[in-house]
Design goal:
Helix content is about 25%, strand content about 25%. By secondary structure, the chain is of the alpha+beta class.
């Protein structure tokens, strides 16, 4: 079986693997001959002459492989996948850490720590992310934080609630008090859990070939600011209809 992400095309497929690795995997099926070997960025920007592919189609092919690479990596790590309105999210489980346990993170300055699983209002919440690849303005994965709720069976997570509206309602109530500081901390702890002591996360795409992701998200400075939300108490939260926890936004409109 071919264990690496590939994109079918006509009577063949696109892959990051070389011909020798492919033929070792398919030796009982057929001998495959490479049509072309093209540098990645050249393929994305200009496509190819053989086979005849324009840049936009080439970009979609690469995006599909990048998406499959992340999903395969996440499943291999035992993360729990749950399909949201447009794409899957992958979440930590009791295989990774216990309820209420904090993951230290931060390599510069003060070390911090954040929880990725806990019990709230009789339910178990488990943090995760959706990772969407993008090639502009440079190759990257864009991470969207997710929270998945399951029934509580003592201190263990039971069945995940199947109803998306139920998931939506619990997110709006349980996560209402989380501010940017908490969301940021959970995301950093999640990346720390995946990378450990390694500064990168490596997604296998062929034998000894990896997509290397920096375990530290891109940093930027905003030209505007507000009163820092992490210094406000819960009672300072607005009660308007569009405040998190009050506005009944359909799940499919969140992406």
């Amino acid at each position: 079986d071919w264990q690496y992400p590939a994109e079918p095309y006509l009577r063949g497929f696109f892959s990051f693997a070389d011909a020798n690795a492919v033929n070792r995997a398919f030796e009982n099926v057929a001998k495959l001959i490479p049509t072309a070997e093209i540098p990645l960025l050249e393929f994305v920007e200009s496509g190819a002459d053989v086979p005849d592919i324009q840049g936009r189609e080439a970009s979609n092919i690469v995006m599909s492989i990048l998406r499959r690479a992340w999903e395969s990596y996440a499943r291999d790590r035992g993360l729990l996948d749950y399909f949201y309105s447009q794409s899957p999210g992958f979440h930590v489980t009791d295989k990774h850490l216990g309820l209420g346990k904090k993951i230290p993170w931060g390599r510069q300055g003060d070390r911090r720590s954040s929880m990725l699983r806990n019990k709230a209002k009789g339910k178990i919440w488990q943090f995760g992310v959706t990772a969407n690849p993008s090639l502009w303005p440079f190759p990257q994965y864009r991470l969207k934080s997710r929270v998945l709720f399951a029934e509580a069976e003592g201190e263990r997570a039971g069945k995940v609630f199947d109803d998306k509206q139920v998931q939506h309602r619990y997110r709006r109530s349980v996560c209402k008090g989380w501010r940017n500081k908490q969301w940021h901390g959970r995301l950093m702890a999640f990346l720390e859990l995946l990378s450990g002591e390694d500064p990168t996360i490596r997604l296998p795409v062929a034998d000894s070939v990896y997509i290397k992701l920096d375990a530290m998200p891109c940093l930027f400075t905003s030209p505007v600011t507000t009163v820092l939300p992490d210094v406000l108490d819960d009672e300072d939260e607005d009660d308007d209809d569009d405040t998190l926890g009050n506005f009944a936004l359909p799940e499919e409109d969140e992406d």
